[in-house]
Amino acid sequence: MTLPSVEILVCTCRPEGAGRVAAMLLPPAEGVAYVVAWQESGGAEVPPALASRSDVRVVRTAARCLSENRNEAFEAARADILLVADDDLTYFPDAIRGLREAFARDPRMDVALFRHEGAPKAYPASAVVLTEHLPKGYYISSVEIAVRRSALADRRLRFSPQMGLATRYGCGEEEVWLLTAMRLGLKVVFLPLTLCRHDGATTGSRSRVAASTLRGFGAAMALIYPFTTPLRLPLKAWRLARGGQAGFFGALIGLAQGAWGGYFKIRRPWRG
Q: Strand (E) positions, the chain?
């Protein structure tokens, strides 16, 4: 079985970010390479640990937010399969091979979602093809996405530059990207495969949720569940308050502001 090639698309920011990328590289392996999308590099030199590797390409970007940086990485990619990555992950080589084998076995699979170690999180118990919505209790993180590069020929399949880190709507870009893939008719599969470890807290799981994150929650909700969002907003605010992540009324206001943006300000990528 011929395995597809893989590129790990590592997004990083500021001069010190490149050092973090250098620390996460695996030993060179055939068919596995890296694209480092370096935002706000400040003219710093590429660290020798990156510059000396023939399997690493560093792309300096003028991206203004994380979503734009991820899209720059998409544009620079050359491999068959692309992994969306941050600069603080630990990858498991055997699992990367398992992912390549899964794509080789199913040439119709466009997007694969997988597990990562770190903060406690619920996942489906077995492989499942995903359609319009995710299984109850399951949400995705950006570092759990692998996509066949050929699927990116449809330029609608990009991260929304209006959402994510360093934007007004500070999260939810992964869910909207995934919804776009589904709306475009791509085959999306969850695989019970643990590909990497991430020790930091994800945006939505922090002990206190930032205002931009609340707006991101609300915006994603309005884009994914446009008809039931008014009912979902107070429930989400109550859950955040119960978990000590925000006050109920503050959360409700932030969520509502985000939902307004989702309805009237954020472009729906699947519409072009």
A: 6-13, 32-39, 56-61, 81-85, 89-91, 111-117, 128-130, 145-148, 188-198
